[in-house]
Write a structure and sequence with these properties.
Chain A is mainly alpha-helical. Chain A has one domain. In chain A, helix 1 crosses helix 6. The two termini of chain B are 36 Å apart. In chain B, the strands form 3 sheets. Chain B has a 6-stranded mixed β-sheet with strand order 5-6-7-3-8-9, sandwiched between helices. Chain B has 2 domains: 236 residues, Rossmann fold (3-Layer(aba) Sandwich); 60 residues. Chain C has one domain. Helices cover 72% and strands 0% of the residues of chain C. Classes of the chains: A mainly alpha, B alpha/beta, C mainly alpha. Chain B: Keywords: Antibiotic resistance, ATP-binding, Nucleotide-binding, Transport. Chain B: Its main location: membrane. Chain B: It holds the Pfam family ABC_tran. Chain B: This is Methionine ABC transporter ATP-binding protein.
Chain lengths: 270, 318, 270
């Protein structure tokens, strides 16, 4: 057990280090996130000026929502991506069949890789926009110091849920000739249903309720709400529980999908 | 007629290396250093040297991709850097490790694009295509997507693409790298035909056999300077290059004694004998076969790096 | 003149090849095209959702913003369609692919802009055109010759200004290969900015995109004239007609930047 944990930690650390070699590109990306946040925050401010308190957020919370969601965007891979790009090249080269037979668990390997990546990107592409937003553009930092660890935990769970969805999409590559199209479509769905573009409370009633129950809500909307301290005490645990629930369900589905994929490779030779 | 002329051409690169955490040190590297040579129309020249000697930098300057830092350079009557586009119509280039063909499309489509980009007249295109198809045996490959071609087939496809517009000069960078014996032979045969038909060929290679079979002239470049210019025999003499006779005896024994050869290595029943490259192997083989229980033998050609290394040792040692 | 014609012809030849190569994967092409269309529509859906809660944003009604949205989308969409992939320059330099392009008897800019050309990138101009037509219909404007002229001016000069931004900013990658992300904030960020009314944004930002990066001339200034709205910056009216001059200047500057970059690449090899 301890050995396994050590192994996955090593894999994650390797991915973290690999991504940290693209330092300038990551930093430029963080600047881009900040520019987008400035633009989008202005549009939100205009909306909240017309409708104060819309969706249960005050104007300052709405602006903060934009900055936090931009800080999460790349880390939680709201568009898709992350390990998917690497997996894609392995599908193209045909190495994927070999990967299934490695002694390391296929799903665990890629989860560890993705967590390492997300860790580095949260640091830079998350940290820079948050700092810029808080220092110059009126984003509101949490009042309670306890919120920070809860937010980090929520962001971690967001990455795991996002991984669960992306893993299932990538697995479709075992059956589809080319999974790129499906990946693009799920990326669109993810951007919209995660609350990346607009808080889900602003959706028309029915659609909003559905969107809040789907796994994508756990990717952006929930960590943002944790950061904004929308709920207190045990209710926060409810939010985290929702994320954990979807994380487990999706991981389980990934497991089943992986078994089917392996069987297919065994029967048809890839 | 001089087709390629270099007059004291130099090319320096500025390299930044890390010095400490933040500071970076800049220093200049001379990739090509006062290089002068000429190539006449119709020649086939081997351009060789160790990795990093300045071969690709020279080729890039000759194609107009890179501008020389100093010196004068003319190819087919134009200054490559100034008139890159005009020059591109008069030269053909093949990089052994990088294809210019369109990966997902049939070979024919790449040729069709070349026809239009190089503005080749229909009649000339038809004739050239026919010639390439015949000599390179491309008939079955024309309608195959390039990604499905083997390395050797793709190299033949690339050679065809480089020659459709009747270039005056053909630059080849490692044209036989990674190919199997049969493909190598085919490529060499084709290049011989192309050169015989009047196209000037300049090729870089690590394979001395390419030079032996194709080039009447060899130029060796090292540290950006021309260190040898002459024929292959001259190169072997200058480099005191040696061939190696690998002998497998029936059982391990003491080092073989044969006139004109010396044992350089013994491993079990196998022994390596070195002898001067220009000397025939026949008398040595005869001598060995006569006196030792011979199972098998083979002759190995000299390796470029060794030849050049010894040439240096010779030059330094007097 | 012959040179310019050859630049266009050679671009067309190479672009046609990329298009053929892309259609080699037919299934994926349809899905990806659908996804592109959805991606482009996302931010308009956000606008619709915003107007679900309010009938004015920054004092502008939805059809008025639709006019901005349509013209901004066409401007960046057409520019991206024709030469958007020039932003991959740094990558091409790193892999050595640029050298191969320089071997062709055609202008380097034509070859770089034609790289990875795909019809899929028509999605944005198509979707923007649809929104523009709807907005023009819903606005019920009293057309006069100067308004027609202004609209035509936006449709021509907008793409030129964005095209100049793509090429000019990409030229930076000749010197600094990792500038791509930063450039995105000006191009794609700029297009997002122009979808919203100028009244939404802070004065400093407006000054920056008028006199710094000349985005305001793409559609803001002409639209103010068409709709008879006051300029938040209070610039002279003549500025609203200045787009052709600005576009010509931007294109000239971009051309010079590209030349300088290419010359530096060929003479420093960095």
């Amino acid at each position: 057990m301890r050995q396994a944990v050590g192994l996955y930690l090593t894999i994650a650390r390797g991915a973290f280090r690999r991504y940290s070699t693209y330092r300038m590109a990551t930093f430029s990306g963080a600047v881009t996130n900040s520019v987008f946040a400035v633009i989008l925050a202005a549009t939100f401010l205009a909306l909240w000026r017309a409708r104060p308190g819309l969706g249960g957020y005050d104007a300052r919370a709405a602006v903060t929502y934009i900055w936090v969601s931009q800080a999460l965007l790349v880390s939680v891979a709201a568009w898709g991506g992350g390990f998917q790009d690497e997996l894609q090249t392995r599908f193209r080269s045909g190495d994927i069949a070999v990967d299934l037979y490695r002694p390391v668990d296929f799903q665990g390997w890629w989860l560890a890789t993705d967590l390492g990546r997300a860790g580095f990107q949260l640091l830079v592409r998350g940290g820079v926009p948050l700092a810029v937003g808080a220092l110059w553009f009126g984003a509101r930092l949490p009042r309670s110091p306890l919120t920070w660890p809860l937010f980090l935990l929520s962001a971690l769970l967001a990455v795991v849920v996002s991984f669960g969805v992306r893993f299932l999409v990538s697995l479709s590559g075992f059956w589809l000739h080319d999974a790129e199209g499906l990946r693009a479509l799920t990326g669109v769905a993810s951007m919209f249903l995660s609350g990346m573009l607009l808080p889900l409370t602003l959706f028309p009633a029915g659609a909003g309720a559905v969107a809040r129950a789907l796994p994508w809500a756990a990717i952006v909307q929930l960590p943002c709400d944790v950061f904004l301290e929308r709920r207190h005490g045990l209710a926060v645990l409810g939010e985290l529980g929702f994320q954990l629930g979807w994380a487990l369900v999706l991981f389980g589905l990934g497991r089943v999908g992986l078994r089917l994929a392996t069987r297919k490779v065994v029967v048809q030779g890839g | 007629m001089e087709l390629i002329e270099l007059d004291r051409v130099s090319r320096t690169f500025t390299v930044r290396s890390k010095a400490g955490r933040l500071r970076r040190r800049r220093h200049e590297v001379r990739a090509v250093d006062g290089l002068s040579f000429t190539v006449r129309a119709g020649e086939c020249v081997g351009y060789i040297g160790p990795n990093g000697a300045g071969k690709s930098t020279t080729i890039k300057m000759l194609t107009g991709i890179l501008v020389p830092s100093a010196g004068r350079l003319r190819v087919a009557g134009v200054d490559p850097a100034r008139e890159r586009v005009a020059l591109a119509r008069r030269i053909g280039v093949v990089f052994g490790q990088r294809t210019t063909l369109w990966w997902d499309l049939p070979l024919r489509d790449s040729y069709e694009l070349a026809r239009r980009l190089y503005r080749i007249e229909p009649a000339r295109y038809a004739a050239n295509l026919e010639r390439c198809v015949e000599l390179l045996q491309l008939g079955d490959l024309l309608d195959t997507p390039v990604r499905q071609l083997s390395l050797g087939q793709r190299m033949r496809g690339d050679l065809g693409a480089a020659l459709l517009h009747d270039p005056q000069v053909l630059y080849l960078d490692e044209p036989t790298i990674g190919l199997d014996v049969l493909s190598k032979a085919r490529v060499r045969e084709f290049l011989r035909e192309v050169n015989a038909a009047g196209t000037t060929v300049l090729l870089t290679t690590h394979d001395l056999t390419d030079i032996e079979q194709l080039c009447g002239r060899v130029m060796v470049i090292d540290h950006g300077r021309l260190v040898f210019d002459g024929d292959l025999a001259g190169l072997h003499a200058a480099g005191r290059s040696e061939r190696t006779l690998v002998v497998d005896l029936a059982r391990p024994g003491p080092p073989i004694e044969a006139p004109g050869a010396r044992v350089v290595k013994v491993a079990g029943a196998r022994q390596w004998l070195a002898f001067p490259a220009e000397q025939s192997a026949a008398p040595i083989v005869a001598a060995v076969a006569d006196r030792y229980p011979l199972q098998d033998l083979s002759v190995r050609e000299p390796v470029i790096e060794d030849v050049i290394a010894r040439m240096y040792a010779g030059a330094v040692g007097g | 003149m012959a040179e310019l014609r050859w630049a266009v012809t050679s671009w067309r030849l190479a672009a046609a090849m990329w298009m053929r190569a892309a259609t080699a994967y037919r299934t994926s092409f349809v899905l990806l095209a659908a996804a592109s269309l959805l991606v482009c529509s996302l931010d308009f859906v956000v606008l619709l959702l915003m107007f679900h809660h309010t009938d004015r944003l920054g004092g502008w009604r939805l059809p008025e913003i639709g006019l901005l949205y349509g013209t901004a989308g066409i401007a960046i969409g057409v520019a991206d369609f024709l030469l958007g992939t020039v932003d991959g320059l740094g990558e091409r330099i790193r892999t050595g692919a640029l050298d191969t392009l320089l071997l062709r008897p055609a202008p380097a800019l034509s070859m770089v802009c034609a790289e990875r050309f795909t019809l899929r990138r028509l999605a944005r101009p198509a979707q923007a055109t649809a929104v523009l037509l709807w907005a023009l219909h819903a606005l019920d404007l009293h057309w006069s010759w100067d308004k027609v002229l202004l609209l035509a001016m936006m449709l021509v000069c907008g793409p030129v200004i964005f095209g100049a931004l793509f090429v000019g900013l990409s030229s930076v990658q000749f010197f600094w290969g990792e500038a791509r992300e930063l450039q995105n904030s000006a191009t794609y960020g700029g297009a997002t900015l122009l979808q919203y009314p100028p009244d939404v944004f802070a004065r400093d930002l407006l000054l920056g995109v008028t006199f710094g990066v000349p985005l305001a001339f793409v559609n803001w200034l002409p639209t103010l004239q068409i709709l008879g709205r006051p300029d938040p910056l209070g610039l002279p009216v003549v500025c609203r007609f200045a787009a052709p001059l600005v576009a010509a200047a931007a294109a000239g500057a971009a051309g010079l930047a590209w030349r300088a970059g290419l010359r530096a690449y060929r003479s420093t090899g960095s």
